[in-house]
Amino acid sequence: MATRANPAAQAARAVSLHIGLNAVSAAAYSGWDGPLAACEFDARDMAAIAKSKAMKPTVLLTKKATRARVLAAVRSAAKALKKGDFFFLTYSGHGGQVRDANGDESDRKDETWCLYDGQLIDDELYFELSRFAAGVRILVLSDSCHSGSVTREVPPPPPPPGQRAKLMPAAVAMRVYTEHKKFYDSLQEQVATEAAKARGKAPADPDEALAQVGAAAHATALVGEFKPAVILVSGCQDNQTSMDGDHNGAFTEKLLKVWSDGAFKGNYDSFHARIRAALPDSQSPNLFVLGKARAFLAQKPFTV
Question: Dmax over Cα atoms in the chain, in whole Å?
């Protein structure tokens, strides 16, 4: 009797990770605890979208959103997912910065996610994403501020009266980096060394390539090490701030309205454009890609 292929076995697999921090550990941030209100709601609402698309979500809220747990979850997904599979990663919390230990200029900075017990540097995140298998689709949504990059040294304007920005204050960022300089410098050096081994050539600062990546509709692949197809959407531009809210952050709130429980019919480019149009000029979400993401950009958001 002939056996038939099991359609379910051929279906794409999808997992997701949702991170939301309404505070950080003051012990890890030089006495600053970074209170916010809506980030845990953001994470839960993103997990609800994941569940609606038959993904298996992991949710890490505030005290559970540690560096070790976040990195372990990303690495677990990287090991499990194969070509055609989908990884959905969201972050809602403060954006921060540390000095770039690998740069040529002393005033260069790397962007970070402020996790509960320490910052996750963008170099670390990009390297972890590069370890996914070829053909895996990765969507990253970051509802946070990212002040300080290799392309800009002008601080973002202060938030409107009565609103909370998802931004670690510059003075706090400098104090935290100074007090933990050896730790954050060693992280950057480790990433550069591991990335060099993977590429088989000399270390390079990932930010130098990322600074050249175009915005929406410019599906460039300037980071050749990326075998997966990656779409990254941030809550604002480098010279802006993402606003917190009572139930959702401003970016997440507009995203949910545009998505409209799945009624949205466009692709990632139009999804980004609709969200951007719904926000004020002071907060313009950014979109860029890594790897061969042209086909991925053409899909309806959250398609497994």
Answer: 73
Angle, vertex CA 127, rays to CA 95 and CA 244, nearest 5: 15
26-35, 71-80, 149-158, 259-268, range with the lowest pLDDT? 149-158
Does the pLDDT of residue 25 top 80, yes or no? yes
3-state secondary structure (DSSP) of residue 53: coil
- Looking at residues 49-57, what average pLDDT do you find? 95
Q: Does domain 11-297 have CATH number 3.40.50.1460?
A: yes
What does each C-alpha distance from 188 to 49, 67, 103, 250 come to in angstroms? 33, 15, 10, 31
% of the chain beyond a pLDDT of 90: 40
Assign 294 to helix, strand or coil.
helix
Evaluated on CA atoms 258, 165, 105, 203, the torsion sign reads: negative
Counted residue by residue, the chain has a size of 304
Report the predicted TM-score, pTM, of the whole model to 2 decimal places.
0.81
Asked whether 11 and 54 are in contact (CB, 8 A), the reply is no
Please state the φ and ψ torsions of residue 288, each to the nearest 5 degrees.
-150, 165
The answer for residues whose C-beta is within 8 angstroms of residue 304's C-beta and 6 or more apart is 11, 12, 14, 53, 54, 55, 86
Contact assessment for residue 279 and residue 223, using Cβ atoms and an 8 Å cutoff: no
Give just the sign of the alpha carbon dihedral 269, 250, 61, 164: positive
Instruction: Classify 70 in phi/psi space as left (phi over 0), alpha (psi -120 to 50) or beta.
Output: alpha
Distance CA 257, CA 249 (A): 12
Return left, alpha or beta for 115; rule: phi > 0 is left, psi -120 to 50 is alpha, else beta.
beta
Task: Compute the mean pLDDT over every residue in the chain, rounded to the nearest whole number.
Answer: 77
149 vs 78, which has greater pLDDT?
A: 78
Q: How far apart are the first and last CA of the chain?
A: 33
